[in-house]
Amino acid sequence: MRVLFSSTSGLGHVYPLVPLARALSTAGHQVLWAGHASVGALVSWAGLASAPAGLQGAGFTAVIDDLRRRGRQLPPTERAAFMFPHVFGSALPPAMATGLLALAREWHPDLLIHEQAEMASPLVAAVIGVPSVMQSYGGAVPPAILTEAADRLESLWRAYGLAIPAYAGCFDAPFLDICPPSVRPVPLTHVPIVQQLRPTPYAGPYQDGLVVPGGSDPLIYLTLGTIPGTTATLSAVLRALSRMSVRIIATAGPEADPAALGEQPAHIAVTRYAPQTQILPLCDAVISHAGSGTFLGALAHGLPQLCLPQAADQFRNAHACVRAGAGLALHPDDATPSAIVQATWALLDQRPLRDHAARIRIEIEAMPTPEDVVPLLEFLTTS
User: What range defines the domain where residue 182 resides?
Assistant: First the structure.
């Protein structure tokens, strides 16, 4: 079986799909990954082949930067409803459909698998007459937002001589959901068939020389994600935590300069980026933006977390975390230094938070593995 994966370029969109791609490859199937040129470097560490497709270079950067600028003019809680349809329903799919279709006609895949922000794949699958499967990278996209993105895709489907199906064909095959049911930010009543899939850790190669502050105080992982523009907020959080008797390992982001955060005391270590698979096993708690990768990674390790959502799906994740009793959350307007310190002590002192996080870890461990799901995907290509 030949399986063509496709994704957008963010780490949080790529890494969640890698374990399934590796499971298919290990089972003897041929796997090829299509996306922005930067994706090739991300998946090559997993031994996966890739090919460029979609907007590239300066054209990609200009489009994304413009939409981010427009999105920042909105209140943080409203940005996801603007950004998802405009970026993933309008800006990226036309070029992606062209490149992905050309690649598919050359490579002849039996199955296409895409993450939920890469919405050209169902169209290409319909054109060449093979199944397309969507996998989440966290919680599902709310149906109203997905519907608006699909509405923006209708003219593209018509250009290929096709009528657009409901939700742009994203749920025409079983939906692979990596979010444990107890913390689903969005109910899946609109999805015909849901196949649970364990959120399996993958975060690229280990970082040599990772500095972990010494001592016996609790160790907290602090991150506000990999998207540029969070340095000022991260600096404020570090200042709030600097007088606490805790150790902090913080990541500033792959494109950020840790030196811009200023000199830190000995119990705080800051690096650009380090794999969560390397950091989380060492930690007692997590403070983050509640991006899906960090949100699920902390739960997979049974760690309580303080969510400081900034944009995108982070507010939904933070709400789900609090609802499940596995963590706390502060809205940007409420994230004062004293509130951050108080919430951090609560993470370490309140046993129910840790117990609920541990319960969700057990729930995640019971979910089907990528290897368990491979037979379903094989069946789709033969039925």
Answer: 2-199+367-380
Q: What is the DSSP letter of 203?
A: -
How would you classify the pairing of strands 219-223 and 194-196? unpaired
Neighbours of 324 (CB within 10 A): 18
* Residue 106 CB coordination number (10 Å): 8
**Residues 280, 202: Cα–Cα separation, whole Å:** 12
Using the CB atoms, write b or e for 215-254: b if 16+ within 10 Å.
eeebbbbbbbbbbeebbeebbebbebbeebebbbbbbbbe
Residue 310 belongs to a domain with what CATH number? 3.40.50.2000
* Tens digit of each residue's pLDDT (9 = 90 or more) over 329-374: 999 889 899 999 999 999 999 999 999 999 999 999 999 999 999 9
Backbone dihedral angles phi then psi of residue 138, each to the nearest 5 degrees? 175, -135
Q: How would DSSP label each residue in 207-254?
A: PTT-----SSS-EEEEE--SSSS-HHHHHHHHHHHTTSSSEEEEE--T
pLDDT for res 33: 97
Tokens read off for 245: 């008797």
Q: What pLDDT sits at residue 228?
A: 54
**H or E element in which residue 108 lies:** none
Rounded Cα distance between 342 and 322, Å, is 16
Q: Check pLDDT > 70 for residue 226.
A: no
Q: What is the pTM of this model?
A: 0.92
Q: Are 350 and 330 within 8 A, CB to CB?
A: no
Does 189 share its domain with 331?
Answer: no
Both 7 and 93 in one domain: the answer is: yes
Cβ-based burial of 162 (10 A; exposed 0-12, middle 13-18, buried ≥19):
middle
Q: What pLDDT digit, counting tens, does each position of 176-201 carry? A: 999 999 999 999 999 999 999 999 98
